[in-house]
Amino acid sequence: MNDLIEKRIELQAPVSRVWRALTDYREFGEWFRVKLDGPFVPGQVSRGHITYPGYEHLKWEAVVQKMEAERLFSFTWHPYGVDPKIDYSQETPTLVEFRLEKTANGTLLLLTESGFDKVPSYRREEAYRMNEGGWTEQMKNIENYVAQKP
Predict the structure, then answer these.
(1) Is the sign of the CA dihedral 43, 109, 9, 28 positive or negative?
(2) What is d(CA 83, CA 71) in angstroms, rounded to the nearest whole number?
């Protein structure tokens, strides 16, 4: 199994637009399908509830790591932490990074999620598989979002 998920997509939108879709908590919530309690602040916990059909019972929790304007947005979280009976807080979280690069036609969005080797072995493969598929879906979501709301 791989330790790293990597996705890349060229979005037909300027870097400033993609940055806003990533880092404005209301916009992020629309395409990611999560209702967040407040703005993203580096070093602070972001909380909310998933709004994706079938997952509405799940809470969202991530710790914002970096917000380097129009370049890098990152957070840590517990991948595929969907069992309400499990306390994931003792696990080492994975690191999610969104990197933006200007292109001739818009913005190259590079996503990485790393640290799966630190996820407990009993759930590592499932967490990787579910997030790998989830990020494929989320890249389509942000692409559609910035196209529909320029």
Answers:
(1) positive
(2) 34
- pLDDT of the residue at 55: 87
Instruction: Spell out the domains of the chain, with CATH numbers in brackets.
Output: 4-24+68-148 (3.30.530.20)
Amino acid found at 46: S
User: Which residue do the tokens 């306390």 mark?
Assistant: 87
Of 48, 57, 53, whose CA–CA distance to 26 is shortest? Answer: 48
HSE (side-chain half, CA atoms, 13 Å) at 134? 16
CB-facing half-sphere around the CA of 12: CA atoms within 13 A: 5
pTM for this model (two decimals): 0.96
